[in-house]
Amino acid sequence: MGLREMKKQQTRQTISHEATRLFLRHGFDRVTIADVAAAAQVAKMTVTNYFPHKEDLALDMHEDFVSRLARTVADRTSGESALIALRRGFLNAAERHDPVIGFSGPGFARMVVDSPALVARLREFHEEREDALATVLAEQTGASPDDPLPRLAAAQFGGVHRVLFQDALRRTLNGQTNDEIATALAETARTAFNLLTPALATYAVL
Question: Could you give all domains of the chain from N- to C-terminal order, each with its CATH number?
Fold first, then answer.
C-alpha cells in the first residue's frame, strides 16, 4: 500500500472511530455529520466522501457484509455444495466472534435496535447480500436469466443468516457473553442448515 492509500485508510479509520464513539455516547439519531467531522478534525465533505450514508458510519462493514456469502460460495473447495460452504463459513465466523454475523457488544447492539434508520439500513444490507449471492449462484450453475432457482436458493440461505444475525443481537442485549452466543448460534445454525439439506444439499456443487 502506497503512502497516499495509507493516509486515506487512516483518515477513514479515524472518522469511523470518532463516529462510533459519538454514536455510543449520544445515540445514533442525535449525532450529525457535522459532529463527526468536528470530532475527526476533517471537513463534512470528507466524511461524506468516505461514507455517503450516515448509517454507514455506524455500520462500517457494508462491503464485507454484502459480499461475504457470495465470496464463501465462490471460494468453496471442489466437491462442496453451496450449502456446505455456507454452513462451514458461518460456524467458523461464530467461533471467532465475527462482527459481520452479529457480534457487536451490548452498547452497539442497543444503538442499532434503537434507531429506525439503522434497522432500515441493515435490512438493505441483507437484501443486497441475497442479490450478490444469487448472482454468484446463477453464474456458477449456468442458470438462465429467467431461472428463479438461484434467487430462491439465495433467499433461503440469506433468510437463515438474517435470523441468526437477529438472534446474535437479541442474545447480546440479554447479557449473554460472546462464548455463550457463539455456542447458541452454532446450534441454531446446524438446525437451520439441516432444514435446508433435503432441498439444497446437492445444489451448486463445485
Answer: 3-53 (1.10.10.60), 62-200 (1.10.357.10)
